[in-house]
Amino acid sequence: MKLTAVVAAAVLSLSTGLAVADDASVAKQGKTTERAVVLDFGALDTLDALGFQASVVAVPRQGLPEYLSQFDNERYADVGGLKTPNLETIAKLSPSMVLMTGRSGEHREALEEITTVVDVSLGTDTDYMTAFDANIRKLAERFGAGEQAEKKLKELHEKVSKARTEVPKEAKVLVVTHNDGRLMLNKHPVVYQVLQLPEPVLPPNVKSEKRGERVFTPLSVEAIQEIKPAVLLVVDRSAAIGGEPLHPESLQKSLGNTKIKVLSPALWYLSGGGLQSLSLQIDEVVDAL
Length: 289
Fold this sequence. Notes:
Blueprint: H1 5-16, H2 23-28, E1 36-38, H3 41-50, E2 56-59, E3 77-78, H4 87-93, E4 97-100, H5 108-112, E5 116-119, H6 128-142, H7 146-166, E6 173-179, E7 182-185, H8 189-194, E8 209-211, E9 214-216, H9 221-227, E10 231-236, H10 237-240, H11 248-255, E11 259-262, H12 265-270, H13 275-288
Parallel strand pairs: 1-2, 1-4, 2-3, 4-5, 6-10, 10-11
Antiparallel strand pairs: 6-7, 8-9
Helix pairs in contact: 6-7, 7-13
Protein backbone atom coordinates (compact mmCIF):
# COMPACT_ATOMS: atom_id res chain seq x y z
CA MET A 1 0.00 0.00 0.00
CA LYS A 2 1.37 3.43 -0.94
CA LEU A 3 1.76 6.11 1.70
CA THR A 4 2.07 9.85 1.34
CA ALA A 5 5.63 11.12 1.51
CA VAL A 6 5.05 12.68 4.93
CA VAL A 7 3.55 9.51 6.40
CA ALA A 8 6.31 7.41 4.84
CA ALA A 9 8.86 9.66 6.49
CA ALA A 10 7.12 9.26 9.85
CA VAL A 11 6.95 5.48 9.52
CA LEU A 12 10.62 5.35 8.63
CA SER A 13 11.54 7.42 11.66
CA LEU A 14 9.51 5.23 14.03
CA SER A 15 10.52 1.87 12.61
CA THR A 16 14.23 2.43 12.13
CA GLY A 17 15.12 5.26 14.49
CA LEU A 18 16.43 7.30 11.55
CA ALA A 19 15.96 11.05 11.26
CA VAL A 20 13.98 12.19 8.23
CA ALA A 21 13.86 15.23 5.98
CA ASP A 22 11.69 18.07 7.22
CA ASP A 23 8.17 18.67 5.89
CA ALA A 24 9.33 21.46 3.61
CA SER A 25 11.79 19.12 1.90
CA VAL A 26 9.11 16.48 1.44
CA ALA A 27 6.55 18.98 0.16
CA LYS A 28 9.03 20.29 -2.40
CA GLN A 29 9.00 16.88 -4.04
CA GLY A 30 5.29 16.97 -4.85
CA LYS A 31 3.19 13.85 -4.44
CA THR A 32 5.88 11.16 -4.78
CA THR A 33 5.42 8.30 -2.32
CA GLU A 34 8.49 6.32 -3.34
CA ARG A 35 10.86 5.04 -0.68
CA ALA A 36 13.97 3.96 -2.53
CA VAL A 37 17.07 2.02 -1.55
CA VAL A 38 19.67 3.30 -4.01
CA LEU A 39 22.51 0.92 -4.89
CA ASP A 40 23.96 3.12 -7.63
CA PHE A 41 25.75 6.39 -6.98
CA GLY A 42 24.87 7.85 -10.39
CA ALA A 43 21.16 7.30 -9.73
CA LEU A 44 21.64 8.73 -6.24
CA ASP A 45 23.22 11.94 -7.52
CA THR A 46 20.43 12.27 -10.11
CA LEU A 47 17.73 11.98 -7.44
CA ASP A 48 19.66 14.52 -5.38
CA ALA A 49 19.87 16.91 -8.34
CA LEU A 50 16.13 16.55 -8.94
CA GLY A 51 15.31 17.26 -5.29
CA PHE A 52 14.19 13.79 -4.19
CA GLN A 53 16.49 13.33 -1.20
CA ALA A 54 13.56 12.49 1.10
CA SER A 55 12.52 9.64 -1.18
CA VAL A 56 15.85 7.92 -0.48
CA VAL A 57 15.73 5.68 2.60
CA ALA A 58 19.09 3.92 2.32
CA VAL A 59 22.44 4.05 0.52
CA PRO A 60 25.66 2.00 0.57
CA ARG A 61 28.07 4.13 2.59
CA GLN A 62 31.03 1.94 1.67
CA GLY A 63 32.83 3.80 -1.12
CA LEU A 64 30.41 6.73 -1.03
CA PRO A 65 32.02 9.47 -3.17
CA GLU A 66 32.91 12.74 -1.50
CA TYR A 67 30.48 14.71 -3.64
CA LEU A 68 27.64 12.64 -2.11
CA SER A 69 28.82 13.05 1.49
CA GLN A 70 25.47 14.61 2.41
CA PHE A 71 24.04 11.06 2.36
CA ASP A 72 26.56 9.89 4.95
CA ASN A 73 24.37 10.68 7.94
CA GLU A 74 21.69 9.19 10.15
CA ARG A 75 18.86 10.21 7.83
CA TYR A 76 19.76 7.33 5.51
CA ALA A 77 20.24 3.71 6.53
CA ASP A 78 23.60 2.17 5.63
CA VAL A 79 23.19 -0.91 3.44
CA GLY A 80 26.87 -1.80 3.05
CA GLY A 81 28.55 -1.76 -0.36
CA LEU A 82 27.51 -1.70 -4.01
CA LYS A 83 28.56 -5.32 -4.55
CA THR A 84 27.66 -6.49 -1.06
CA PRO A 85 24.38 -4.85 -0.04
CA ASN A 86 22.98 -5.82 3.35
CA LEU A 87 19.80 -7.67 2.38
CA GLU A 88 18.54 -7.95 5.95
CA THR A 89 18.70 -4.19 6.46
CA ILE A 90 17.00 -3.57 3.12
CA ALA A 91 14.17 -5.97 3.99
CA LYS A 92 13.57 -4.25 7.34
CA LEU A 93 13.13 -0.91 5.58
CA SER A 94 10.27 -2.21 3.39
CA PRO A 95 11.23 0.07 0.47
CA SER A 96 8.97 0.61 -2.51
CA MET A 97 11.91 0.00 -4.85
CA VAL A 98 15.60 -0.78 -5.09
CA LEU A 99 17.66 0.99 -7.75
CA MET A 100 20.62 -1.11 -8.85
CA THR A 101 23.05 -1.90 -11.67
CA GLY A 102 25.08 -4.96 -12.61
CA ARG A 103 27.45 -4.28 -9.71
CA SER A 104 24.77 -5.67 -7.39
CA GLY A 105 23.63 -8.22 -9.95
CA GLU A 106 24.34 -11.39 -8.00
CA HIS A 107 21.83 -10.23 -5.38
CA ARG A 108 19.06 -9.40 -7.83
CA GLU A 109 16.86 -12.43 -7.14
CA ALA A 110 17.08 -11.88 -3.40
CA LEU A 111 16.25 -8.20 -3.83
CA GLU A 112 13.27 -9.06 -6.03
CA GLU A 113 11.86 -11.11 -3.17
CA ILE A 114 11.91 -7.95 -1.04
CA THR A 115 10.54 -5.31 -3.42
CA THR A 116 10.47 -3.96 -6.97
CA VAL A 117 13.94 -3.87 -8.51
CA VAL A 118 14.73 -1.19 -11.08
CA ASP A 119 17.87 -1.62 -13.19
CA VAL A 120 19.38 1.82 -13.78
CA SER A 121 22.33 0.62 -15.86
CA LEU A 122 23.12 2.66 -18.95
CA GLY A 123 22.25 0.94 -22.21
CA THR A 124 25.14 -0.04 -24.46
CA ASP A 125 23.43 -0.21 -27.86
CA THR A 126 23.72 3.54 -28.61
CA ASP A 127 26.20 6.33 -28.07
CA TYR A 128 26.83 7.41 -24.50
CA MET A 129 24.83 10.64 -24.43
CA THR A 130 21.80 9.00 -26.04
CA ALA A 131 21.90 6.21 -23.46
CA PHE A 132 22.52 8.74 -20.69
CA ASP A 133 19.53 10.91 -21.64
CA ALA A 134 17.22 7.89 -21.88
CA ASN A 135 18.34 6.63 -18.48
CA ILE A 136 17.81 9.98 -16.77
CA ARG A 137 14.35 10.31 -18.30
CA LYS A 138 13.37 6.80 -17.28
CA LEU A 139 14.43 7.39 -13.68
CA ALA A 140 12.79 10.82 -13.53
CA GLU A 141 9.53 9.40 -14.88
CA ARG A 142 9.30 7.02 -11.93
CA PHE A 143 9.38 9.99 -9.58
CA GLY A 144 7.11 12.23 -11.63
CA ALA A 145 10.01 14.57 -12.36
CA GLY A 146 9.98 14.68 -16.15
CA GLU A 147 9.89 18.46 -16.36
CA GLN A 148 12.74 18.91 -13.89
CA ALA A 149 14.80 16.30 -15.73
CA GLU A 150 14.38 18.01 -19.10
CA LYS A 151 15.58 21.28 -17.60
CA LYS A 152 18.63 19.60 -16.06
CA LEU A 153 19.42 17.74 -19.29
CA LYS A 154 19.24 20.96 -21.29
CA GLU A 155 21.69 22.61 -18.91
CA LEU A 156 24.01 19.61 -19.08
CA HIS A 157 23.98 19.47 -22.88
CA GLU A 158 24.84 23.16 -22.97
CA LYS A 159 27.77 22.43 -20.66
CA VAL A 160 28.92 19.58 -22.91
CA SER A 161 28.81 21.84 -25.97
CA LYS A 162 30.82 24.52 -24.17
CA ALA A 163 33.37 22.00 -22.89
CA ARG A 164 33.90 20.63 -26.41
CA THR A 165 34.97 24.09 -27.53
CA GLU A 166 37.33 24.47 -24.57
CA VAL A 167 39.34 21.26 -24.91
CA PRO A 168 42.07 21.20 -27.57
CA LYS A 169 40.70 19.11 -30.45
CA GLU A 170 43.98 17.39 -31.19
CA ALA A 171 44.94 16.77 -27.58
CA LYS A 172 46.60 13.38 -27.27
CA VAL A 173 44.89 12.02 -24.17
CA LEU A 174 45.32 8.49 -22.88
CA VAL A 175 43.06 7.11 -20.15
CA VAL A 176 44.19 4.17 -18.04
CA THR A 177 42.82 2.27 -15.08
CA HIS A 178 45.22 1.55 -12.23
CA ASN A 179 44.68 -1.71 -10.37
CA ASP A 180 47.17 -3.06 -7.87
CA GLY A 181 50.21 -1.64 -9.65
CA ARG A 182 49.02 -2.53 -13.16
CA LEU A 183 47.76 -0.17 -15.84
CA MET A 184 44.98 -1.02 -18.31
CA LEU A 185 43.62 0.88 -21.29
CA ASN A 186 40.36 2.66 -20.46
CA LYS A 187 38.26 3.88 -23.41
CA HIS A 188 36.19 6.07 -21.14
CA PRO A 189 33.12 7.44 -22.95
CA VAL A 190 33.18 10.75 -21.08
CA VAL A 191 36.58 11.49 -22.59
CA TYR A 192 36.20 10.00 -26.06
CA GLN A 193 32.46 10.30 -26.76
CA VAL A 194 31.11 13.12 -24.62
CA LEU A 195 34.10 15.44 -25.08
CA GLN A 196 34.98 13.90 -28.47
CA LEU A 197 38.72 13.75 -27.88
CA PRO A 198 40.57 11.48 -30.34
CA GLU A 199 41.50 8.01 -29.11
CA PRO A 200 45.27 7.42 -29.20
CA VAL A 201 46.71 4.87 -31.59
CA LEU A 202 48.15 1.87 -29.75
CA PRO A 203 51.50 0.32 -30.67
CA PRO A 204 51.13 -2.94 -32.65
CA ASN A 205 52.75 -4.96 -29.85
CA VAL A 206 49.97 -4.05 -27.39
CA LYS A 207 47.58 -6.99 -27.18
CA SER A 208 44.22 -7.36 -25.49
CA GLU A 209 43.29 -10.25 -23.19
CA LYS A 210 39.85 -11.81 -22.73
CA ARG A 211 38.84 -12.85 -19.22
CA GLY A 212 35.41 -14.38 -19.20
CA GLU A 213 33.17 -11.93 -21.04
CA ARG A 214 35.46 -8.96 -20.45
CA VAL A 215 38.39 -7.71 -22.52
CA PHE A 216 41.41 -6.02 -20.94
CA THR A 217 44.33 -4.27 -22.62
CA PRO A 218 47.38 -4.10 -20.33
CA LEU A 219 49.71 -1.15 -20.90
CA SER A 220 53.34 -1.23 -19.82
CA VAL A 221 55.28 1.94 -19.11
CA GLU A 222 57.19 1.26 -22.31
CA ALA A 223 53.95 1.12 -24.31
CA ILE A 224 52.80 4.42 -22.83
CA GLN A 225 56.19 5.93 -23.68
CA GLU A 226 55.66 4.80 -27.28
CA ILE A 227 52.15 6.27 -27.39
CA LYS A 228 53.55 9.59 -26.09
CA PRO A 229 50.34 11.07 -24.71
CA ALA A 230 50.34 14.74 -23.81
CA VAL A 231 48.06 13.92 -20.89
CA LEU A 232 47.61 10.65 -19.00
CA LEU A 233 44.32 10.43 -17.10
CA VAL A 234 44.28 7.75 -14.40
CA VAL A 235 41.16 6.09 -13.01
CA ASP A 236 42.49 4.59 -9.78
CA ARG A 237 40.42 1.48 -9.07
CA SER A 238 42.69 0.45 -6.20
CA ALA A 239 42.21 3.76 -4.41
CA ALA A 240 38.44 3.65 -5.02
CA ILE A 241 38.04 0.29 -3.28
CA GLY A 242 40.44 0.95 -0.41
CA GLY A 243 43.60 -0.60 -1.87
CA GLU A 244 47.07 0.82 -2.44
CA PRO A 245 46.72 3.92 -4.63
CA LEU A 246 48.91 4.77 -7.57
CA HIS A 247 52.01 6.78 -6.69
CA PRO A 248 52.33 8.97 -9.79
CA GLU A 249 55.74 10.35 -8.88
CA SER A 250 57.64 7.27 -10.05
CA LEU A 251 55.51 7.03 -13.20
CA GLN A 252 56.19 10.68 -13.95
CA LYS A 253 59.94 10.05 -13.97
CA SER A 254 59.47 7.46 -16.73
CA LEU A 255 57.05 9.52 -18.83
CA GLY A 256 58.94 12.79 -18.94
CA ASN A 257 56.80 15.64 -20.28
CA THR A 258 53.51 13.70 -20.17
CA LYS A 259 51.13 15.37 -17.74
CA ILE A 260 49.66 12.85 -15.29
CA LYS A 261 46.30 13.54 -13.70
CA VAL A 262 44.83 11.07 -11.19
CA LEU A 263 41.07 11.53 -11.38
CA SER A 264 38.82 11.41 -8.30
CA PRO A 265 38.79 7.62 -7.71
CA ALA A 266 35.25 7.06 -6.39
CA LEU A 267 33.71 9.49 -8.86
CA TRP A 268 35.23 7.74 -11.86
CA TYR A 269 35.27 4.10 -10.76
CA LEU A 270 32.26 3.74 -8.45
CA SER A 271 29.97 6.45 -9.79
CA GLY A 272 29.08 7.99 -13.15
CA GLY A 273 26.01 8.14 -15.33
CA GLY A 274 24.25 10.71 -13.13
CA LEU A 275 23.39 14.36 -13.62
CA GLN A 276 25.99 15.47 -11.10
CA SER A 277 28.67 12.86 -11.75
CA LEU A 278 28.82 13.52 -15.50
CA SER A 279 29.09 17.26 -14.87
CA LEU A 280 31.91 16.72 -12.35
CA GLN A 281 33.75 14.35 -14.71
CA ILE A 282 33.60 16.90 -17.49
CA ASP A 283 35.06 19.51 -15.14
CA GLU A 284 37.96 17.24 -14.17
CA VAL A 285 38.91 16.47 -17.77
CA VAL A 286 38.67 20.11 -18.87
CA ASP A 287 40.80 21.15 -15.88
CA ALA A 288 43.38 18.45 -16.66
CA LEU A 289 43.82 19.73 -20.21
